[in-house]
Structure formats: structure tokens, C-alpha cells
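The instructor's notes for this session suggest beginning with a concrete chain rather than abstract definitions. Hand out the sequence below and ask the class to guess, before any prediction is shown, which regions might be ordered.
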Amino acid sequence: MSATRYAYLGPEGTFTEVALRTLPEAATRELVPMVSVPAALDAVRSGAAAAALVPIENSVEGGITATLDELATGEPLMIYREVLLSISFALLVRPGTALSDIKSVTAHPAAQPQVRNWLAAHLPDAVWESAASNADGARLVRDGRYDAAFAGEFAAATYGLEPLVTEIHDAENAQTRFVLVGRPARPAAPTGADKTSVVIWLGEDQPGALLELLQEFAVRGVNLMLIQSRPTGAGIGNYCFAVDAEGHIADRRVGEALMGLKRICPNVRFLGSYPRAGVEPEDVRPLRPGTSDAEFTDASDWLARNLDGRV
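After discussion, reveal the predicted structure:
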């Protein structure tokens, strides 16, 4: 395995590259752009890269399906870190292009919901075509395939384009969450401000099946930060669920919730426990009474005393 290489969703000039460069270790790694999220993650699986940074969620549309699906299938991988990046788009064009000249636009599919209203108001007749990434859309504009691309303003210089309009976003304070993914290993120690990610497959389809799954978290006071259904490919009505929960697998409440899921679900894939980006332990909401590690330990000791005949 190449311990000095980090892959990312490329080409150069993507928001993913910007997010990756916020990590201190990026300064000492060879950063390798890949053509797609599956390609970036496959580089980790094959050993061509030690880790990969990929987008997994945005604040406008929720989970990035390509990443969720790739993490749910194939050889297991693990999330070790997350990065939050504020997102604002620029409309990049070849020099000399006016807004009235634009008949076609392109960007990554995840960008469309974030600029949909602006596009309808300013370029209602422009044809939208999806690109592998926002930076790849800029490359296609440079090559004459499209008239304009929604991408980061920083990508303009890389592809010889000009930002015709900047600060485009339908939602204020839009953010995208990226995750650093590597091969499975022992999770880092809890920090007090952690997140645990899993993919869960439901068992037999029956009334209350999803509720039963959610109750494993609820009765232990584990807050869910994301839950998104994804088709398994096994036919209509067959779904798995990507879940982000507050806490660390080493926390008793989280560990017992995962054990409960493992008892009732045919498959549970652990994707990692890792620090929450931008959150300090003092920022985390207090635990619900009865759900701290000390209270779980006290209850376990009580049960042991009764089993031993000790009052």
C-alpha cells in the first residue's frame, strides 16, 4: 500500500481537493485526483492509496448517493475523519462569453439542487448536462463541450476560464460534508464529540420493521444525525439504510445499540467512529439521564450482584 498517497474526487480544482487540503497531513501526501467516487475508493481497496477523500452529504439535498452506495457494497472501508466545507458556486465561461451566449451548462449532479433557482431565474432555457465533478465540468467548458460550468471560483485559473457570476447559491450557508476513508482498522479513541456511521439492512419486510430498528437507538438515548434509505438492487422494496449517530462505538449506549441491531438485522456494516467536524466536547448536548457509561456500568453491576445472590 502506498502510505503517502491520498486519492480524491478530481480532477484538479474540485471542492473535494479544497477540502482535502484543509487536513494538516495533506501537506506531506501525494494527492491523486480520480475520475469518480468509486475510482477514488477503489484506489484504497487496491492499496494504490492509503486513503481517499470523497463527498458524502450536502446541506441542501442530503446524502451523496454515489458515496453511500459505494460504502455499502464491495470490500469494507472505514471512515476516519470528516471535513465540512462551505459551498458557493461561480459560473465559469470561456473568455468573452456573455450570459446571453450560454445555451448549455454543466456541473456535478449534486450541484444542480444548489443552483436550481438561480438557473431558472437567469438561464431558464439553458440545457443542463451532468459532469463527473464540478471541475470536470470546467474542463469540458474549456474544451468547448459546454458554454458554462458551475464550479468553485478557484477552478477558473486552472482551466483558463473566467468567473462570469460569483457567489451563486440558492441556500445561504450551504455546506458539503466530506469523509476521509481508509482500510478497516481499530477506531481512534473517543473524543467526547464523535459520530458513528453504519449501513443497516432490514430483515423481513413487515409492519414496524423500520420502527424496530430506530428503537434500538432511541431507548438508549442515541441521537441520529442522518438516516437515508438506499435500494439494495435486489428488487423493488428492498432497501438498506445509511445512518449517522452521535457518539462512539466505545460508548456503552452506542455499542449496545449496534449489538441490538445486529441481533435483529441480517447485516450491519460498521463504517467507523470518528470526530465530528467543528464540534468540541463542550458543545455536545448533555446525555439523557440513564444513558451515560457510568449508568450502564452501574446497571450491569446490579444485575451481576443479583445473579450472584448479593443484595
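Then share the key points. The chain has a mean pLDDT of 93. Residues 293-307 form the longest helix (15 residues).
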